[in-house]
Each structure stands twice: as C-alpha cells, then as structure tokens.
C-alpha cells in the first residue's frame, strides 16, 4: 500500500466542509496532524450556538487552514439572547467566518409548536443574504417546511450546502434554492444505493441543486 505522502502528491487536496472541532479539543493536535497526513488541506469548523462560538472562532484564528461559521443549530434551546439578523451579520463580518449556520429545521425529536425553529431559520437565511455568505442548512424529517422557508426567504440569492440531508432524490431536485449543494449521510447513501439497485428508488449522491 502506498503511503499517504505519495497519495497526497497525486490527489487534489481535500476540504472537510463540516466539523465540530471543539468537541475533540483535547485530541485536536493529533486529529489535525492525522487529517493533514490524509490530504485534508482546509477545514470548516461549524458553529452550533453562540455560547460556544468564541471557541470556534478562536480555532479559526489560531490555525490558518481552519475557517468557521456562525449560527445556532435548530436543536439548540431557545435563549433570551437569541441572535437577530443584525447580530449574526456583525459576527459574520470577521474574515475567518465564511458561512452562516448551521441552521435549518429538525423535527426528529421536536413536537408541538415549531414556530421558534421557523423563526430562527428565517433569521439565519436573512442574515446570510445580508452579509453575502452561504448557508449551512441542517434538515431532518422537515423537508417540506425547509424547502418552503428557503423559497419564501429568497435563499437562491445566496446558496449554500444542505447538511444532514436524509430525504429522497425528488426532494433534492425540488429544493427551490437553485444553488444549494447536498451532503448525504453515509448510512443514508447506503440505503438509497440498495433501493436504487433493486429498482425501488432513485440515484444517490452529492448533487448541485
């Protein structure tokens, strides 16, 4: 088997477009070294809430190959200091911030009144449009509302990536943004591939919207 240095010399560099590095802070140096050895040249450390955001931003300033996003995950509890559009835009002004999110809708564990998730998602879309930086959208068991809000808030003006996308091909093809890219979770890709090979489902993969 060829060593990683040889493979890195013939393959294009890789970008880890979605990682949560503060979760592994004690192992961070080892993880970064291992990633580099496998050809990962850049990383996007994704924000999940504002209390932990300073740590995310600090990593982006400490390491020249790490960039960051700013945003509040749909599963994060609603806080009294919930960010508005102006707050997100101001935080995104830092040159190390390259995206807004992760944001979106997640109904997997949610029930009842979902208006707080909707309001938060709309705020993030508006902030992305205002600051000119792409969205990182998390959607789980909320496809119809995710697409509807993207359309209503004009997400096609800014684009972005659909992260944690577990829906079907038809939903991806009708996302409504026109410029979102999709990342399917590995185990969902396996399910889609099995369905496609048996003639019961469509193709699977990362596509341009």
Folded structure, characterized:
The protein has 209 residues and is an alpha/beta fold. It has helices at 4-10, 28-37, 53-62, 85-92, 115-131, 143-152, 169-173, 186-197, and strands at 14-19, 40-45, 66-70, 97-106, 135-140, 160-165, 180-184. The chain has one domain (48-197): Alpha-Beta Barrel (TIM Barrel), CATH 3.20.20.140. Strands 1-2-3-4-5-6-7 form a seven-stranded parallel beta sheet. Helix 4 (85-92) packs across helix 5 (115-131). The longest helix is centred in the middle third of the chain and has 17 residues, at 115-131.
Q: Please tally the β strands and state the result.
A: 7
The amount of beta strand, in percent, is 15-25%
CATH class descriptor:
Alpha Beta
Helix share bin: 25-40%
How are strands sequenced across the largest beta sheet? 1-2-3-4-5-6-7
CATH fold label? TIM Barrel
Q: What is the overall pLDDT average?
A: 81
**Radius of gyration over alpha carbons?**
18 Å
Overall morphology: globular
**CATH homology group:** Metal-dependent hydrolases
Number of helices: 8
Top keywords for this entry?
209 residues, alpha/beta, TIM Barrel, seven-stranded parallel β-sheet, 7 strands, 38% helix, disordered C terminus
List the helices and strands and how they pair.
Blueprint: H1 4-10, E1 14-19, H2 28-37, E2 40-45, H3 53-62, E3 66-70, H4 85-92, E4 97-106, H5 115-131, E5 135-140, H6 143-152, E6 160-165, H7 169-173, E7 180-184, H8 186-197
Parallel strand pairs: 1-2, 2-3, 3-4, 4-5, 5-6, 6-7
Helix pairs in contact: 4-5
């Amino acid at each position: 088997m060829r060593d990683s240095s040889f493979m890195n010399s013939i393959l294009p560099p890789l970008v880890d477009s979605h990682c949560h590095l503060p979760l592994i802070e004690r192992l961070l140096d080892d993880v970064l070294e291992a990633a580099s050895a496998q050809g990962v040249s850049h990383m996007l450390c994704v924000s999940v809430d504002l209390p932990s955001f300073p740590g995310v931003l600090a990593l982006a300033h400490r390491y020249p190959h790490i960039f960051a996003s700013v945003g509040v995950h749909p599963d994060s509890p609603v806080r009294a200091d919930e960010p508005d559009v102006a707050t997100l835009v101001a935080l995104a002004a830092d040159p190390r911030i390259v995206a807004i999110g992760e944001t979106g809708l997640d109904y997997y564990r949610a029930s009842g009144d979902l208006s707080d998730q909707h309001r938060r998602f709309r705020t993030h879309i508006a902030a992305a449009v205002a600051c000119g930086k792409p969205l990182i959208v998390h959607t789980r068991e909320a496809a119809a509302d995710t697409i509807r809000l993207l359309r209503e808030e004009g997400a096609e003006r800014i684009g972005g990536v659909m992260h944690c996308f577990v829906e079907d091909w038809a939903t991806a093809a009708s996302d409504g943004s026109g410029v979102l890219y999709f990342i399917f979770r590995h185990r969902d890709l396996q399910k889609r591939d099995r369905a496609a090979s048996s003639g019961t489902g469509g193709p699977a993969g990362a596509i341009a919207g």
